[in-house]
Amino acid sequence: MKRLMIATALATTLGTGAFALTEAEMIEVQTFNTDIDTSGYTEQDYNIAYGIIHSGMSHGEKTAKLKALEHDNNIDMGPVRLSEAEIARLREYAPDADLTNVTQAQAEAALAVSYGANSEAEAASRVASILQGKEMDDETTAAMNTGRINILRSYVPDADLAGLTEDELELALAYAHSGMSRGEKVERIQALLN
User: Fold this and answer.
1) Does one domain contain both 138 and 116?
2) Domain that holds residue 140
3) Which of 65, 108, 112, 131 is 20 to 30 A from 87 via CA?
4) Pair 89, 162 in one domain
5) How confident is the model at residue 56 (pLDDT cuts 50, 70, 90)?
């Protein structure tokens, strides 16, 4: 679960067995910083590491995250990373929210609720609540789950998403929230469905 949260927090290019790294990408991870021992990395570790080195972090931050991955996999991904469009959407539903202390998980949950609530007023109330750090009730969780599917449908509208495992769903959402181009997001999400 920690690795899954890392993937979600990264919200960058990650892979799975269905979208494994190429040998060149693995070499890129291995040579990013030769002080980091990648000999014990699993395929998932390589995928996470590849996402880290292609994130918007500084070289020092990337090295620190890779060292944490090398030792214990308990990586603090730092502040939330949102696109301007995602920030604008959160501001639309919670204009007074302070986004400086919001976690990536809270931001993504709030975004999902904004796509899954039954009304604009319900979305505004639930998004604000999430961004204030309040625990989600069953109705908010249901709106979040609906919204997560709606977010993915915006990339693969005709796909059967029912066959995705929870891990695959989380990974698909990480792709959706990543800084990749829309085309690459679609390609990666479709690869999970095949």
Assistant:
1) yes
2) 84-193
3) 65
4) yes
5) low
Handedness of CA 192, 65, 38, 41 (dihedral sign): negative
Could you count the other beta carbons within 10 Å of the beta carbon of residue 183?
Answer: 9
CA–CA distance, 124 with 132 (Å, rounded to integer) = 12
Q: Are 99 and 47 in a shared domain?
A: no
**% of residues, the chain, pLDDT over 90:** 34
Chain-centre distance for alpha carbon 133: 19
The residues, any chain, with a CB within 8 Å of residue 118's CB and separated by 6 or more, are: 143
Q: Please provide the distance, in angstroms rounded to a whole number, between the alpha carbons at the two ends of the chain.
A: 23
Q: Give the tens place of pLDDT for each residue, 83-132.
A: 888 889 999 999 999 888 888 788 889 999 999 999 999 999 999 999 99
Please check whether residue 76 lies inside any domain of the structure. Answer: no
Q: Is residue 93 part of a domain?
A: yes
